[in-house]
Amino acid sequence: MKKIGFLSFGHWTPSPHSQTRSAADSLLQAIDLAVAAEELGADGAYFRVHHFARQHASPFPLLAAIGARTERIEIGTGVIDMRYENPLYMAEDAGAADLISGGRLQLGISRGSPEQALDGWRHFGHRPPEGGTDADLARAHAERLLEVLKGEGIAEPHPSPMFANPPGPLRLEPYSEGLRERIWWGSSSNATAVWAAGLGMNLQSSTLKDDESGEPLHVQQRKQIEAYREAWRAAGHAREPRVSVSRSIFALVDDRDRAYFGRERNSEDQIGYIDPTTRAVFGRSYAAEPDVLVEQLARDEAIAAADTLLLTVPNQLGVEYNAHVIGSILTHVAPGLGWR
């Protein structure tokens, strides 16, 4: 059994070829797709966060709206760039969205990827620590978020408050019990996966991964997952961790699928550089008849190692088609792999 959800980047463009031509289209269609995915039996609706781009940005209004329209499906991010975040304000937003959804929030956070704007986080008022990097900034924000999500008091009560306070230091409100255990770290390296395990975060293995061995992405991800789980055990955490990987997977079951993806060219891993010194490997896409997909996916070692698979969806093709993409995997592919 495996949890299967979708991951949307929320792209929109004012093009006649796009079904998602505005920010309003992107947001409202995301809600509709989450509702449709829940009806199909999918397990999660996840959203990527980018700033200064025609994509999803501040995620919590969207997550709260989906939480109010759905009943069962997990709602999450993959990922929020912590370089841009005020950890305390984020904890309040996350607590509210989690309570609205009835405790279904699964927050993926990370250092983030290369952005549209040069050092865009500086415009949000954030700076790396003295002598540190933007990666240090993101990790410091993440650690602060984890601390305040424990629900412990951090602020001294005012001696003459407007309203009566409970005794002792004040915690951030609204507080949502259990949210601290539903934070995931999006990791592109083995070292950061081990770091995340030590802090008790779940793991989202990044599809854009540092090329640390020259092996295929799925093999490197499987080894990353093994290192993460070993570090988790060494840290002595009481619960079992969760691990997700994301893939572009399209079952060719009708003429639309074949027109869109029948000549899929990204059938091999891609190699590139995310900065002048970091060589990265980007995962292949899968597009084939369902029986072929079953054979191909059975050989993906990272998918086998993970408990959660996120299907990246081409959101600009519209809600109806993306619901079809998700439904095709759930109906025609997942049973053949023992996932359903």
The CATH fourth-level homologous superfamily: Luciferase-like domain
Number of strands: 12
Strand order of the main beta sheet, please? 1-2-3-4-5-6-8-12
Low-confidence stretches: none
Going by CATH, the architecture would be Alpha-Beta Barrel
Coarse shape: globular
β-sheet strand percentage? 15-25%
| Continuous helix count | 10
Mean pLDDT: 95
Distance between the termini: 6 Å
Top-tier CATH class: Alpha Beta
* Rg computed from alpha carbons, rounded to a whole number of angstroms: 20 Å
Can you write the helix and strand succession as a string? EHEHEHEHEHEEHEHEEEHHEH
Our count of domains comes out at 1
Computed structural class? alpha/beta
CATH topology: TIM Barrel
Largest sheet: 8 strands, parallel, barrel
Helix content: 25-40%
What does this structure look like?
The protein has ten helices and twelve strands. It is α/β, with parallel strands linked by helices and 340 residues long. Strands 1-2-3-4-5-6-8-12 form an eight-stranded parallel β-barrel, surrounded by seven helices. The protein has a three-stranded antiparallel beta sheet with strand order 7-10-9, with helices on one face. Helix 1 (23-40) links the parallel strand 1 (3-8) and strand 2. Residues 9-257 form the Luciferase-like domain. One of its GO terms (molecular function) is monooxygenase activity. Keywords: Monooxygenase, Oxidoreductase.
